[in-house]
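Q: what sequence does this backbone want?
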């Protein structure tokens, strides 16, 4: 096929790619030193335009969910993407860039036989990412992926953000990998519940009695939503949100015009409130704090989020808890009708959604001491014990020398890739930057880093308008960043914050990026 002239060298910048059309295809061009590379224009995770992201330290960073790819060859460096970028042949002739519209074939090595058996227990975001990474990094032995659900892993973040808003049917949630992928990559997806992991003898037993011996294991079972141990909590409309089936039950109970009570002001709780209000459901939140998320995002941003919810009809109730749930017979089935609060007040509700956090799913582990919260302590390489690793919500791991357990979807995938590398004899360590995003009434907020406390917050823009960047700083260094409508800057900082970043340097980088926009 002929090469297409698409741009000149003068069109390229060091800090971002540019999107061009090659025939009927869209391609992103990026600088690699004195050379140029051409890759698919959209992130393989969810289709974000990579030209809207950033280039930093040899990485091309997705603007939406901060997947990272090596500028040199398009290889995957950071999740949530699970694939490398497709690359296109390119030539530069007299400063003019020409790109072929036929993709380059990916090179595949012939791998030696491997007699080992690795088992990954849990097939959500972390487990799927780990299985993919093990094959990507050259493991050619037997690979078992234990999945408690009948269908392959899917993007659970869509549940509270889009499914409860009726923008997406539960069965339309994107799969992390299609069924055929597992077969093509010789990943044995085994449906079953882990009953006992014998760490000493390296043997896994499932609830149906099946047993598997392993050479190395990775635990990625995540967390179970906490329930309320109250009278009436077993009523069918008292629910938590973890799975597609949970979402279907919530939607069945929370039709437009009904009243939903959300217990807890977690990110999941407020995302669900936003989604249900868009769906036409009346929502009351029993909040633990006057200002939601003040401990994570600061008081000003928390107040802006609460105000946004209130402007959209969400009612907040604080300084009160649930005492019990009451129901009555309806069509032969007992249904939730009333929630009794700790002050004696009675609320008529059709649904109670419990959003008070999760408990690590580690009860099946035998032979290893658990932390007080039920998690597993791991080192910076995600190792929990001999030939045993852990990743995601169940892992307490060191950040800046302090043990932390962080329940972020992308972080679980970061953990998983590190663990996969080390299961194969690598020495990878967690030096990444935690990231999550949250979505409320059409406003998306990105959060980078981790800050338990701070002494300064620098605002670029106004949080109340939901177009801003906030640098959360401690002793002159950036500990965390919150952004809304500032995706390119957040993408840049997602890579740059892997090294210590002073407030002044961060402001300079942001200014340079905006001046050249």
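A:
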């Amino acid at each position: 096929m002929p090469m297409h002239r698409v741009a000149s060298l003068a069109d390229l910048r060091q800090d971002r790619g540019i999107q061009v059309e090659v025939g009927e295809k869209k391609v992103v061009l990026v600088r690699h030193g004195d050379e140029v590379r051409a890759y698919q224009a959209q992130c393989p995770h969810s289709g974000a335009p990579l030209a809207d992201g950033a280039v930093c330290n040899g990485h091309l960073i997705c603007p939406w969910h901060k997947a990272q790819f090596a500028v040199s060859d398009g290889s995957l460096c950071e999740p949530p993407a699970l694939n490398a970028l497709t690359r296109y042949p390119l030539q530069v002739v007299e400063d003019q860039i020409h790109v072929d519209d036929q993709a380059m074939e990916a090179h595949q090595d012939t791998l030696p036989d491997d007699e080992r058996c690795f088992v990954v227990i849990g097939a959500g975001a972390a487990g799927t990412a780990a299985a993919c990474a093990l094959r990507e990094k050259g493991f050619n032995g037997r690979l078992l992926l234990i999945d408690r659900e009948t269908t392959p892993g899917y993007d659970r973040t869509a549940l509270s953000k889009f499914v409860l808003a009726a923008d997406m049917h539960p069965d339309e949630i994107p799969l992390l990998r299609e069924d055929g992928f597992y077969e093509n990559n010789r990943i044995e997806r085994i449906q079953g519940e882990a009953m006992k992991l014998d760490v000493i003898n390296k043997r896994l037993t499932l609830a149906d009695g099946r047993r598997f011996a392993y050479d190395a294991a990775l635990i990625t079972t995540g967390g179970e939503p906490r329930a309320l141990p109250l009278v009436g909590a077993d009523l069918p409309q008292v629910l938590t949100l973890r799975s597609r089936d949970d979402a279907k039950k919530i939607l069945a109970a929370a039709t437009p015009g009904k009243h939903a009570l959300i217990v807890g002001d977690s990110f999941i709780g407020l995302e669900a409130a936003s989604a249900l209000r868009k769906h036409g459901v009346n929502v009351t939140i029993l909040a633990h704090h006057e200002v939601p998320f003040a401990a994570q995002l600061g008081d000003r941003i928390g107040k802006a989020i609460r105000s946004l919810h209130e402007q959209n009809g969400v009612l907040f109730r604080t300084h009160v808890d649930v005492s019990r749930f009451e129901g009555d017979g309806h069509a032969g089935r007992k249904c939730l009708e009333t929630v009794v609060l700790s002050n004696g007040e009675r609320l008529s509700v059709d649904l109670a959604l419990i959003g008070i956090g999760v408990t690590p799913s580690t009860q099946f582990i035998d032979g290893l001491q658990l932390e007080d919260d039920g998690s597993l302590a791991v080192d910076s390489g995600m190792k929990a014990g001999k030939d045993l690793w852990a990743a995601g919500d169940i892992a307490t791991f060191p950040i800046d020398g302090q043990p932390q357990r962080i329940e972020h979807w992308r972080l679980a995938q970061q953990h998983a890739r590190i663990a996969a590398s080390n299961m194969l004899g690598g020495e990878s360590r967690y030096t990444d930057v935690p990231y999550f995003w949250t979505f409320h009434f059409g406003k998306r907020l990105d959060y980078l880093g981790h800050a338990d406390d701070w002494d300064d917050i620098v605002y670029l823009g106004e949080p109340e308008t939901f177009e801003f960047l906030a640098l959360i700083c401690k002793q002159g260094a950036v500990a965390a960043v919150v952004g809304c409508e500032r995706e390119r800057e957040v993408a840049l900082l997602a890579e740059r914050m892997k090294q210590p970043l002073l407030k002044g340097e961060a402001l300079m980088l942001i200014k340079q990026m905006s001046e050249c926009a």
